[in-house]
UniProtKB/TrEMBL annotation:
Highest rank taxon of the organism: Bacteria
PANTHER family: PYRUVATE DEHYDROGENASE E1 COMPONENT SUBUNIT ALPHA, PYRUVATE DEHYDROGENASE E1 COMPONENT, ALPHA SUBUNIT BACTERIAL AND ORGANELLAR
GO molecular function: pyruvate dehydrogenase (acetyl-transferring) activity
Alphabetized UniProt keyword annotations: Oxidoreductase, Pyruvate, Thiamine pyrophosphate
The protein's role, per its UniProt record: The pyruvate dehydrogenase complex catalyzes the overall conversion of pyruvate to acetyl-CoA and CO(2). It contains multiple copies of three enzymatic components: pyruvate dehydrogenase (E1), dihydrolipoamide acetyltransferase (E2) and lipoamide dehydrogenase (E3).
GO biological process, one term: pyruvate decarboxylation to acetyl-CoA
Species assigned in the record: Puniceibacterium antarcticum
Domain Dehydrogenase E1 component: 23-320
UniProt name for this protein: Pyruvate dehydrogenase E1 component subunit alpha
Length: 333
């Protein structure tokens, strides 16, 4: 049965919408578990959670095809899960174990998967944007019609390298979708305090790039915008900008006291705009899924996340000798 919402042009089957629900829930529960493990001292260093932003990456992954590429910042666990990377190996990397994607030597912000075309995980704000354009350049150079999703934040959007990349990407018609995940804050700085031109996607006009603003708490709106952007890039029309309005429920990282916003502000978003509740409501009110079916999904996700945590805790830490390996690329490989 087709589901249509007046504000959301993406029309998907009940089965597909249920899959979006499942994928968003996987990210939510995985991140909650990562937060717990961090609290227990099992995860060291920085850990940036994606809770609240799940509809962004799930909606865009629904618009992607095999071979498309993705690259993002340090807030990267959701992107990895959404493109099908292994929860066990992600959690093991968070806890610094050998079974992790970077053999326990990269941590939360530095994971990659050639198989899933996931190019990181980058700790330097905005650095992934020119790299993303480079990935798109490679596809264009080789005559491939694959596209690259380059995700970055509202804070990163103010960086010089982002503007340089916009300029070159359009000059060379690169098939790159610039995804601004506008979660309203860059660390403790509200987007309203950071710029006098708050419509971030409109800046693309200065370089001749088309784009649009998207409701990032509605996975169907994101999917529809993703389809438009992918079509634009895949048909050789150059880059596209999506400014996706979203909200992060947790602090910037696990060590953020969050004194720059009120509890009421966060609570209001959680209770009125939660992207997972939104889909749940559509599924239940339209009788597209039963309470029992959704409960079974909850149970399945809990199992996956608990297994990942178990795997991460049981896996060994790398030997000290591993400090001397994987430092430079083996060009013979
Ligand atoms: C070049 C650089 N400058 C500063 C930092 C410190 N820093 C880390 S995250 C961040 C805020 C970025 O905010 P935004 O782009 O909105 O992404 P979000 O964290 O909200 O996902 C800053 C300033 C950094 N990592 N790299
Ligand atoms: Mg931000």
């Amino acid at each position: 049965m087709a589901i249509r919402k007046s504000t959301t042009p993406a029309e998907v089957s009940a089965e597909t919408l249920t899959r979006y629900y499942r994928n968003m829930l996987l990210i939510r529960r995985f991140e909650e578990k990562a937060g717990q493990l961090y609290g227990m001292g099992l995860i060291g260093g920085f850990c940036h959670l994606y809770i609240g932003q799940e509809a962004v990456v799930v909606g865009l992954e629904a618009a992607a095809e095999e071979g498309d590429k993705r690259i993002t910042s340090y807030r990267d666990h959701g992107h990895m899960l959404a493109c099908g990377m292994d929860p066990n190996a992600i959690m093991a990397e968070l806890t610094g174990r050998t079974g992790g994607y970077s053999k326990g030597k990269g941590g939360s912000m530095h994971m990659f998967s050639k198989e899933k075309h996931f190019y990181g995980g980058h700790g330097i704000v905005g650095a992934q944007v020119p790299i993303g354009a480079g990935l798109a350049f490679a596809d264009r150079y080789r005559g491939s019609d694959r596209v690259t999703f380059a995700y970055f934040g509202d804070g990163a959007a103010n960086q010089g390298q982002v503007h340089e990349t916009y300029n070159m990407a359009n000059l060379w018609d690169l098939p790159v979708i610039f995804v601004i995940e506008n979660n309203q804050y860059a660390m403790g700085t509200s987007v309203r305090r950071a710029t006098q031109s708050p419509s971030l996607w409109e800046r693309g006009a200065a370089y001749g790039i088309k784009g649009q603003e998207v409701d990032g708490m509605d996975v169907l709106a994101v999917k529809a915008a993703g389809d438009t952007a992918v079509h634009h890039c895949r048909t050789g029309k150059g880059p596209y900008i999506l400014e996706i309005k979203t909200y992060r429920y947790r602090g910037h990282s696990m060590s953020d006291p969050a004194k720059y916003r009120t509890r009421e502000e966060v609570q209001k978003m959680r209770s009125e705009r939660d992207p997972i509740d939104h889909v749940r409501n559509i599924l239940l009110s339209g009788k597209h899924a039963t309470e029992d079916a959704l409960k079974a999904i909850d149970k399945e996700i809990k199992g996956i996340v608990n297994a990942a945590a178990e795997f991460a805790r049981e896996n060994p830490e790398p030997e000290a000798s591993e400090l001397w390996t994987d430092i430079t690329a083996d060009l013979q490989a």
